[in-house]
């Protein structure tokens, strides 16, 4: 993206590369992630104000380890190396890096030796930093001095003020590092001299302008799901090109209670935006195709396929369009291995899966460089209602994967009602602000109960509430019994065919956040987790 002031993060495959970029953006400085394989000429041409080298799984002295050109350190651009990045900076410039007897993992006390260093402004002499390494710097390269140490690391932080090069053995991007954000802020503002004027409102206005210039009188088509990303993308497009945009909203009948109507209210003819809105009620088709299907992976496939077919039919009615709008966001790009280096294992539906059946010239992804919270900030700036902008993540196949066994309209109704009650009570208790994701699911279990002196043989609803930072692991939310009891009695009383409510307290792993996640995602997160555990010397799962 064209942005006059930017910092480049060079990714060596570390787990936290995205976090590094986020922390930089939190300083209102725009930042992009590139793989270490990126041509240095391209990096130079971007004219960055600063460069940050991330951590990584390799050892610098190994054959074939990820590396960088020594020229990177002679561009006159400030460089900060983090963990592997710091080791590499030393190694490339003539220092030495060796394997330590023991790996160092977790919180460590850092002692600052040079409090006057620009990167330590506002940082206490002693503080906690987070470490994850096995190698360490045993000799610094010429021109560097030590600015901080820990018990095991004589060179926990080094600097060469003349060349504006800095290296941290620890990870400032991880929240466990007490002054980590402050140190990164010091680097981007004090060392790189960024002004910190990147704002979401500017982003919205300039993006609208750019779309208008690019699309001109052309026509664009957007598949609107009512999720945060596609909603924000649609509004940006509508502000830029008005009625030359058509949004197709495929209602598969598997949305949460009243959600389809909310989307129609916001984007339909009575809503505030100027665009063509097409709502397709395709629920009958979906239910027909799902009839009798119980295998979760098969259900997913059917829902995905049907979705594409329905969208295709509508697109055909519109005829040729010039642009197809997608709500791809930055993590999708980075996690697909397109921006950075990490997590190539995670496949994502937003990137790469182009619908080849729609006749269009080009794809527009107005949110391609934004993180989720930034997308939400743009959404709010654009005046999109909080109900849409602050929505919890909701899977594409919708309630279809929150119903175990066969999906029928009756079961969808049950889960919709139960879920609405659960969400309402969570909000009433103020837990909606602290719980990341929470929902009701319909187990396929029926059991005997008694209600009003009558025997019942009805379904059990499962409630689930989790918090997750990275979606790879999740902890359950400890909902107070009082709230659980209210939810339970309301569900039993208000939703017919439910006579039992269960609370799922399985963390992830071994559970998953939703009940039936995509098989590839499951394999990807399992292998990513396994890789992490192995790196930590942990037990395999
Ligand atoms: N692989 C290197 C080490 O073990 C760097 C680790 C990292 O960047 N987190 O020291």
TrEMBL record:
Q: What class of enzyme is it?
A: ligase
**Transmembrane region(s):** none
Q: Which domain of life is it from?
A: Bacteria
The enzyme's E.C. designation: 6.3.5.2
Which InterPro entries does this one have? Class_I_gatase-like (IPR029062), GATASE (IPR017926), GMP_synth_C (IPR001674), GMP_synth_GATase (IPR004739), GMP_synthase (IPR022955), GMPS_ATP_PPase_dom (IPR025777), Rossmann-like_a/b/a_fold (IPR014729)
Q: Name one GO molecular function term.
A: GMP synthase activity
Q: Which Pfam families match?
A: GATase (PF00117), GMP_synt_C (PF00958)
| Pathway(s) | Purine metabolism; GMP biosynthesis; GMP from XMP (L-Gln route): step 1/1
Task: Kindly indicate whether the keyword Ligase belongs to this entry.
Answer: yes
Q: Where does ATP bind?
A: 225-231
The alphabetized UniProt keywords are: ATP-binding, Glutamine amidotransferase, GMP biosynthesis, Ligase, Nucleotide-binding, Purine biosynthesis
Which GO terms of the cellular component aspect does the record hold? cytosol
Spell out the CDD domains in the cross-references.
GATase1_GMP_Synthase, GMP_synthase_C
Which residue ranges does the record assign to the GMPS ATP-PPase domain? 198-391
Q: Where is the active site?
A: 83, 171, 173
The UniProt catalytic activity note for this protein reads: XMP + L-glutamine + ATP + H2O = GMP + L-glutamate + AMP + diphosphate + 2 H(+)
**Alphabetical list of NCBIfam families matching this protein:** guaA_Cterm, guaA_Nterm, PRK00074.1
- Assembly notes: Homodimer.
Q: What does this protein do?
A: Catalyzes the synthesis of GMP from XMP.
Q: What is this protein called?
A: GMP synthase [glutamine-hydrolyzing]
Q: Which organism is it from?
A: Candidatus Weimeria bifida
The primary gene name is: guaA
């Amino acid at each position: 993206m064209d942005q006059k002031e930017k910092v480049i993060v060079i990714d060596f495959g570390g787990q936290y590369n995205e976090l590094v970029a986020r922390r930089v953006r939190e300083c209102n400085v725009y930042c992009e992630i590139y793989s270490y394989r990126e041509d240095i000429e391209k990096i130079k041409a971007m004219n960055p104000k600063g460069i940050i080298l991330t951590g990584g799984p390799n050892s610098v002295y190994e054959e074939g380890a990820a590396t960088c050109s020594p020229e990177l350190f002679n561009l006159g651009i400030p460089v900060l190396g983090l963990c592997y990045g710091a080791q590499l900076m030393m190694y490339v410039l003539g220092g030495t890096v060796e394997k330590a007897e023991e790996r160092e993992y977790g919180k460590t006390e850092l002692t600052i030796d040079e409090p006057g260093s620009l990167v330590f402004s506002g940082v206490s002499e002693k503080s906690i930093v987070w470490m994850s390494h096995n190698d360490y710097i045993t000799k610094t390269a010429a021109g560097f001095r030590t600015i901080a140490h820990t018990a095991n690391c004589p060179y926990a932080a080094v600097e060469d003020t003349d060349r504006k090069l800095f290296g941290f053995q620890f990870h400032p991007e991880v929240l466990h590092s007490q002054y980590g954000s402050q140190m990164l802020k010091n680097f981007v503002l004090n060392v790189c001299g960024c002004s910190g004027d990147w704002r979401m409102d500017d982003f919205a206005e300039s993006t609208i302008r750019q779309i208008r210039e690019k699309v001109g009188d052309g026509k664009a088509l957007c598949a609107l799901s009512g999720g945060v990303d596609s909603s924000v993308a649609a509004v940006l497009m509508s502000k830029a090109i008005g009625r030359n945009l058509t949004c197709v909203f495929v209602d598969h009948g598997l949305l949460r209670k009243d959600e389809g109507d909310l989307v129609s209210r916001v984007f339909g003819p009575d809503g505030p935006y100027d665009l063509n809105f097409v709502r397709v009620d395709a629920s009958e088709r979906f239910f027909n195709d799902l009839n009798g299907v119980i295998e979760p992976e098969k259900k997913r496939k059917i829902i995905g396929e049907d979705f594409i077919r329905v969208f295709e039919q509508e697109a055909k009615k519109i005829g040729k369009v010039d642009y197809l709008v997608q709500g791809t966001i930055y993590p999708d790009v980075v996690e697909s291995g397109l921006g950075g280096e990490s997590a190539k294992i995670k496949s994502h539906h937003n990137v790469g899966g182009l619908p080849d059946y729609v006749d269009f010239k080009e794809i527009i992804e107005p949110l391609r460089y934004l993180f989720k919270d930034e997308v939400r900030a743009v959404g709010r700036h654009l005046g999109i209602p909080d109900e849409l902008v602050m929505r919890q993540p909701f899977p594409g196949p919708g309630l279809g994967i929150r119903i175990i066994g066969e999906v029928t309209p009756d079961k969808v109704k049950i889960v919709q009602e139960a879920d609405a009650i659960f969400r309402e009570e969570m909000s009433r208790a103020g837990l909606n602000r602290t719980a990341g994701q929470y929902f009701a699911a319909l187990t396929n279990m029926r059991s005997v109960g008694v209600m009003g002196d009558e025997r019942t043989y009805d379904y059990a609803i499962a409630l689930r509430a989790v918090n997750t930072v990275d979606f790879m692991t999740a902890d359950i939310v400890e909902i107070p019994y009082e709230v659980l009891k209210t939810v339970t009695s309301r569900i039993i009383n208000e939703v017919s065919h439910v006579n039992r409510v269960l609370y799922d307290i399985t963390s992830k792993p071994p559970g998953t956040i939703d009940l039936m996640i995509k098989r590839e995602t499951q394999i990807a997160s399992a292998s990513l987790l396994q890789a992490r555990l192995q790196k930590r010397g942990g037990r395999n799962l």
